[in-house]
Design a protein that fits this description.
326 residues, mainly alpha, Rossmann fold, Tyrosyl-Transfer RNA Synthetase, three-stranded parallel sheet, two-stranded parallel sheet, 13 helices, 5 strands, binds adenosine-5'-triphosphate, binds L-tryptophanamide
Length: 326
């Protein structure tokens, strides 16, 4: 299994329920590679000091979310140069038309109209390289990244069609509940770590009182009945998704639990469930961040192991396309 997240903001409840929770739950079954996608982060302008700090915070949070570095390879994308190298090759097998159709590119171009750079456009080619280097069976991501994994599959098939079986064709692994957590203030938009205004987003490191305040203010509707209807009741449906993903209860069970109780009680219960889920993660991340030496030993060992795997695939690719071996 392989996945990554760009350190472009604080990890949110969306990143956790859509992706990281799935990673941590499967560490026993798979050989797992997870990284901080710093190369991807600079497709949008970043303050250098913030990027550096967030990359390390993200590593601490991965570990605190249950990714034991002894059983998962955790690394920083820019420490493994094969990502950029294969990224170039994949670029040459990705079509202008297919890159133009990517929803994330269209969204980010609209939101960063003064910086529609080449990297933003070819972002999915680098992401495909990230994935294909490790020959994974599964790529655990949220709903919004499915399109990029589809593109990865298409490019890998195209490449294999020309050169033989070089790449394994990976499958997307999206959670049944929680693949798309919406903003709490604007429940028709995705909760996002870099774009959502503060009031709609829960960060993994938020304090309990802040989490409760945000949930109490979550946008709902005027019907006062807790039932799932994404179209007509996006706010309540989003809260139900969060509650279901955190507690494992089905939508029917949640409707029954809050029958006649009103939205106030429901919001409180969702908030409290999230507070309790995040508490150990926040405490452990805070502790880990005081031990920079340990974090450094983790990302160094991770880069070494990842580099070994990545290099094997890259050499094969270079040979196939006809580069003279060094
Ligand atoms: P940015 O705002 O910088 O674009 P983001 O908040 O959209 O970032 P990503 O780094 O793009 O987050 O995503 C990290 C992982 O978490 C991806 O696998 C993504 O699919 C998943 N994810 C992000 N936001 C959500 C969400 N709201 N619901 C479910 N999954 C999510
Ligand atoms: N594009 C992803 C981050 C990402 C990724 C990857 C995810 C970069 N490389 C490889 C899975 C596999 C995002 O925006 N969340």
């Amino acid at each position: 299994m392989l996945s990554g997240i760009k350190p472009s903001g604080e990890l949110t409840l969306g990143s956790y329920l859509g992706a990281i929770k799935n990673w941590a739950e499967r560490a026993d079954q798979y050989d797992c590679y997870y990284f901080m996608a710093d190369l991807h982060a600079i497709t949008v302008r970043q303050k250098p000091a913030d990027l550096r700090r967030r990359t390390l915070e993200q590593l601490a949070q991965y570990i605190a979310c249950g990714l034991d570095p002894e059983r998962n390879t955790l690394f920083i994308q820019s420490h493994v140069p094969q990502h950029a190298e294969l990224g170039w090759v994949v670029n040459c097998y990705s079509m202008f038309g297919e890159l133009s159709r990517m929803t994330q590119f269209k969204d980010k171009s609209a939101k960063n109209a003064d910086n529609i750079n080449g990297g933003l456009f070819t972002y999915p080619a680098l992401m495909a390289a990230d994935i294909l280097l490790y020959q994974p069976d599964y790529v655990p991501v949220g709903e919004d990244q499915k399109q990029h994994v589809e593109l990865t599959r298409a490019v890998a098939r195209r490449f294999n069609g020309v050169y033989g079986d070089v790449f394994k064709i990976p499958e997307t692994f999206v959670p049944k509940v929680g693949a798309r957590i919406m903003s709490l203030t604007n429940p028709t938009a995705k909760m996002s770590k870099s774009e959502d205004e503060d009031a709609g987003r829960i960060a993994l490191m938020d304090k309990p009182e802040d989490i409760m305040r945000i949930f109490k203010r979550a946008v709902t509707d005027s019907e006062n009945s807790v039932r799932f209807d994404r179209e007509n009741k996006p706010g309540i449906s989003n809260l139900m998704t969060i509650y279901s993903a955190v507690t494992g209860k089905s939508y029917d069970e949640i409707t029954a639990e809050f029958d006649g109780k009103g939205y106030g009680a429901f919001k409180l219960a969702v908030g409290e469930s999230v507070v309790e889920m995040l508490r150990p993660i926040r405490e452990e991340s805070t502790r880990l961040l005081t031990d920079k030496g340990y974090l450094e030993s983790v990302y160094r060992a991770g880069a070494e192991k990842a580099g070994y795997m990545a290099n094997k695939t890259l050499r094969k690719v270079y040979k196939k396309v006809g580069f003279v071996p060094r």
